[in-house]
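Protocol step 4 of 6: record predicted structures for both targets in the notebook before any analysis. Target 1:
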Amino acid sequence: MTIRPQYGHFINAKFVVPYNGQYIDSINPDDGSIVTKIAAGTAEDVDKAVAAAKAAGPSWADMRPLERGKIISHIGRLLEERIEAFANAESAEMGVPSMGAFATMVTASNYFQYYGGLAASLQGEHIPVGPEQHSYTVHEPYGVVGVITPWNAPLNQACRGMAPALSVGNTVVLKPSEYTSATALMFAELAVDAGLPEGVLNVVTGAGAEAGEALVKHEDIAKIAFTGSVRAGREIGKIAAEKIMPVTLELGGKSPDIIFDDADLEAAVPGAVFAFLANSGQICLAGTRILVQRSIVDKFAEMMASAASKMPVGKDKPFPSLGPIANAMQFTKVLEYFKVAEKEGAKLVTGGKQATGEGLENGFYIEPTVYVDVSNDMRIAREEIFGPVGVIIPFDTEEEAIAIANDTNYGLAAGLWTRDVSRAHRVAGKLQAGQIYVNYYLESGVEHPLGGYKQSGIGHEKGVMALKQYTQTKNIIIKI
């Protein structure tokens, strides 16, 4: 299975020509070449996809959960068997180095195998109200769920939403980012090969302002799961409020990574470097605000700058390495933040410009970048840059570290490094974030629930908790 030169939408288990006959070039950020062409979706295409999903809904929802789970699990295993082709496709379209793409494909496969196993586990409960009534609950699928995903880990993010939604009996219309749609379309074809009935999963590609908005507004879409920017999440929230429609929103982050003076620096330095450089910084969980206790800040900054500057840059360099920024728009945005940092008075200790060298001439490459002399009120400390940029902010006391960490509009993740177990529990309990890492950073496991505080989102993805995010609870009371 390889990328096709051109894709239509995937509706009712087959590729179909877009309503307007138009296609969008998908560009390889490594060299500017065209990877494939994807259909430019419109409201008419969304109508077809939603109608297909709605028609397939009753039989899929009525299927015995154990049997539904077998299909879901088989999809995950089939993806695992074809993982190399999918990793190569995502590497070409997004620019992520092949080993990084391979890792995200493993997780994507795990989502389907995990939720396939859980499909028959969601149970209602009996509510004791006395001998004259029998009261119980059941969990029912919403119907047609719209899943809208970003460009930074395309299939991984899509599987994170699709797997639990499908496992509890919903049907899905997926709208991937127009920058990275190939693996979603390849996956939809694979799912049918694995036995998924036609119409249960449909993919409409195209721009968010057209296909995405039409999907959110569609009267037969019962729930939206969105991963992306706060701006887009806010717009989706407004539409959902008008429709009285539930949403799951996983939005931006500006996560703190706290380094206490008793931390093991031999572990903390590479861990903190990975926290903000993984996927070239294009991760909403990235630990980009590095809070360091003042007594070790100079030593830590020197070690971090040295480690970051040695990170290989190039799509085909040995792992770990930095691939390109995924598209021209984001590349320009990151470069603009270097001007912001200079104007604000932050001190650059490494990086801070476009990466150059053999093989990088035509790609959107940026050097690993570290700033010191940063205060938490600077824009580079408050706004999500979404590139390989870390800022070091000093603190004196545990209380000050917590205060700085929580002084943000975001609350997706946080990290802390200490040998003091009591401190680890104490600080983790006070951090306002949905996922806390202690003495490491970034967790790819599918079992851990992820949800944001503040402007980082609404609801939860991942883990057992996600199952109930894709169902509505009905209470049935029978007079005896």
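Target 2:
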Amino acid sequence: MAAPARGRAARPRTPTVAEHHAEWLGLLRPEGPFLTVPVLAEVLPHGLDVVPDEVRDRVRQGWVEVREAPDLLTPAWVELILTELLRYPAAARADGSTLPAAGASGLRPDLLLLGPQPAGGRAVRLHVYRRPAGTPLTRAVGDRPALVEQAAALCRDTGTPLALLTNGRHWVLAHARPGQPTGWATFDADLWLEEPLLLRAFATLLAMARVLAPPTTPDGGHSTSLAGLFARSAEALTQVTTTLGDQVRQAVELFVGELARLDRESHRTLLDGVSERDIYRGALTVLMRLVFLLYAEEQRLLPVADPLYAQAYAASTLYDQ
């Protein structure tokens, strides 16, 4: 067998499905608990759906036009996305004014998406809020909470965990269930053509079939619907939190045990005058701060790419050092 030619460039490695999902989630940068990569890789093993060329061309042309006259064309643009990209049929829509108002603001969704129930009938699957161009969706205005937080409160009150808010450019997908924090992410239409993965992710998650499907299967498990994906992800995050708690407790035990050994070797001078409670609290504080720093560095919230920070401050480089 002939040896491979020297200097031949190696073929680029094809990203795994998990890496594919991690890439668009990284571009999206959700706030709060959102969808997890393992759940996405399990439910979407072939990656994101492909947006047909003709639909992508309509989206491209529509966005070019709406940027020229956002106040005039935003309603038509929103309808284009709901109808042609997400394919929400008229038969699945209902007027949001039928819901009770949320809080003192009197907030109601503009549109409800209804999906079939396994036992018959239909149930609300998604609240849709359409706002004028430039309307803030994720930040408070005056003494009122952010619109996304108001929408999340109505999700909890009504038992419908999903809401979609838009001002034309920004499309905020929010998830909120009773007793749980709000998770949301903003899809920026201005980036859809620059970052095609974001357009595909938006179309995949909010596609008619995924939104309107029941959140549970006949046997009571989580379905592959959008609500089901969030429920699966919440369980996965709970498992991660439990595992992390166990690991931190084990690390505290190891750390305190090592301090006790060093104290014995120093003939009890190392921890002289320090109570057992203070030793435990100090060890726990140090380890939880390390966990915080490791997460922040992994999410690139701290300048880990800067050589000075990496060499002198980063927690993630301590092990190698």
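Step 5 preliminary note on target 2. The radius of gyration is 25 Å. Residues 78 and 168 are 6 Å apart (CA to CA).
Proceed to step 6 after PI sign-off.
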